[in-house]
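Hi Prof. W.,

I finally got the tRNA dimethylallyltransferase prediction working! I wasn't sure whether to trim anything, so I left the full sequence exactly as given:
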Amino acid sequence: MIAEQKPKIIIVAGPTAAGKTDIGIRLAERIQGEIVSADSVQVYRHMDIGSAKPSPDEQAIVPHHMIDIKDPDESFSAGEYVREARKIIQDIVERGRVPLVVGGTGLYIKLLRAGMADLPSADENLRNMLRESEQNEPGSLFTKLSAIDPQTAIKTGPRNLTRIIRALEIYEITGKKMSQIYEEHAFRDMPYTFLYIGLTPERSHLYERIDNRVDSMIEGGLLDETETLYELGYGRELKSMQSLGYRHAGMILAGEMDLQAATDLLKRDTRHFAKRQFTWFRSEPDVLWFDPREIKGIGCVVTNFLGA
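And this is what came out:
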């Protein structure tokens, strides 16, 4: 009996400002593809400038999915992302088109590609205790996670409090490190045949792109967009509003930092974020790395993959 062939998907990943949107659109145009966003901020409505969401003109070139599906005060987990994205991918394949998963949220891509580990449900009492501990001693939870599970701490970073709390919650409930659970699961639920393209610009070029992007965001109305979000009732305390750009705009609007200082801080924080993304994607197997300027080489690899 011939084994059922798995659907083919193309993944375009890499750090922020690497050129993923442009590469994804250009590839999708060539191969009758549709883009499935893998970005944890672009899922939110009204958050366009700070998330570097594809513009309406760009979204009109090829169909985009998993963008503008939640309000900023709604929770959205990696598990929800996987369930929704897999439905969309199935629909794209059934219509005879090619799914391109494009984005920089490594966890979304990992779980979409290889499945979810069996993790315990949330314990709100435990989470509240951990939050209180962090409020009393800022930075203590990351220090604790670094001692318990350094592998997860490195991937998570010190600013992602939600992920830090989740990792500690899992350890308290199961007695196992998150990295251990993932290793045991080994992400064997692989419903797709995939081509995994990673974009790796030269560092100086990436940093220049980051600086230019931040300047464009500020000039393009990031402060006005953030103020509008406040007026709509989405406050600074929301997880979505603590993301890059919106957190910094909030400091300006609150008078906590002037425009130049906040802009410089946003550039620095974005570079640090890009480094963490590199760390994540470098740990992933089967990634083919390209400079984003190598569009011809990327195109050849894609053509060969789809023709195989």
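The first helix runs from residue 20 to 31. Does that look reasonable to you?

Thanks,
D.
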